[in-house]
Design goal:
Length: 258
């Protein structure tokens, strides 16, 4: 929904620098699953282009990529990122209403963005934009449990005035495979998971959390300095050194019915 884009105004540069990317293997596998003859891929809720960059790299040159993003700040960074790449078009639009012809896309992805959309309206719009047998994929990076991350998340959950049930919010960030299968426009849903790892130091981990809109809700209450100090103190309690984060990139995908 377009109004949710306002939550990220002013965060685009930080988001581009500190949010993790996605393994190219995920998009390689999705491209291989596309049996439609349409060669348009749509990245919905593209943000500053972290996902778009990997998607573009995974697709053959004959594909064109439309990066759909309603947020002005995110779109500014997104447009700058692909200024010299004619294979990527940046579009100012919401996920539920895209200015793309019906049946024009062979692949449509939403990467760690689905929970901001109106679920029913987005799935209906995806069904309209996708060509028959086109692929819809919902991609999400998950962090495997780690004590320091659990303490960071507990800090947010205890202070957030925007989220009543933080754990429930995390669970609802994506539909289940069963829920996707219930959509009449699509065929049987499938999923796969790719695991990978990155090491972050304390500052890098704090910067990662500063890309989250729930953290900025707390910043607006108590200020940026206190939030950074509190998160740094958590790091110190856990040793204040390198943090090995193990990620799971989960992909749930369906094909549009013929």
């Amino acid at each position: 929904m377009r109004e949710n884009a306002d939550r990220f105004e002013g965060l685009a540069e930080t988001y581009a620098l500190h949010r993790p990317t996605y393994p190219i293997e995920a998009f390689d596998r999705l491209a291989a699953a596309c049996t439609s003859d349409r060669r348009l891929a749509v990245d919905v809720g593209a943000g500053p282009g972290n996902s778009t960059e990997v998607l573009r790299a995974a697709l053959p040159p004959k594909w064109h990529v439309a990066a759909v993003e309603p947020g002005r700040d995110m779109r500014r960074v997104l447009s700058r990122r692909f200024t010299d790449n004619p294979g990527v078009q940046v579009i100012d639009a919401a996920a539920e209403s895209m200015p793309l012809p019906s049946g024009s896309a062979g692949l449509l992805v939403a990467c760690t963005a689905f929970h901001w959309f109106d679920r029913g309206a987005f799935l209906a719009e995806a069904g309209r934009v996708l060509a028959p047998q086109g692929v819809l994929a919902l991609v999400r990076n998950r962090r495997r449990p780690l004590p320091i991350l659990e303490d960071f998340d507990r800090y947010i959950a205890e202070r957030s005035v925007e989220v009543i049930d933080y754990d429930e919010r995390e669970r609802r960030k994506e539909p289940t495979v069963r829920e996707l299968m219930a959509e009449s426009e699509f065929m049987t849903a499938r999923s796969f998971t790719i695991t990978w790892r990155e090491d972050r130091n304390c500052q890098s981990l704090v910067n990662l959390y500063l890309t989250r809109s729930t953290v900025w809700g707390i910043v607006r209450q108590i200020g940026l300095g206190p939030v950074i100090s509190d998160l740094a103190a958590i790091c110190e309690r856990h040793g204040g050194t390198q943090v090995p984060i193990e990620w799971e990139t989960t992909v749930k995908w369906v094909q549009r019915r013929p």
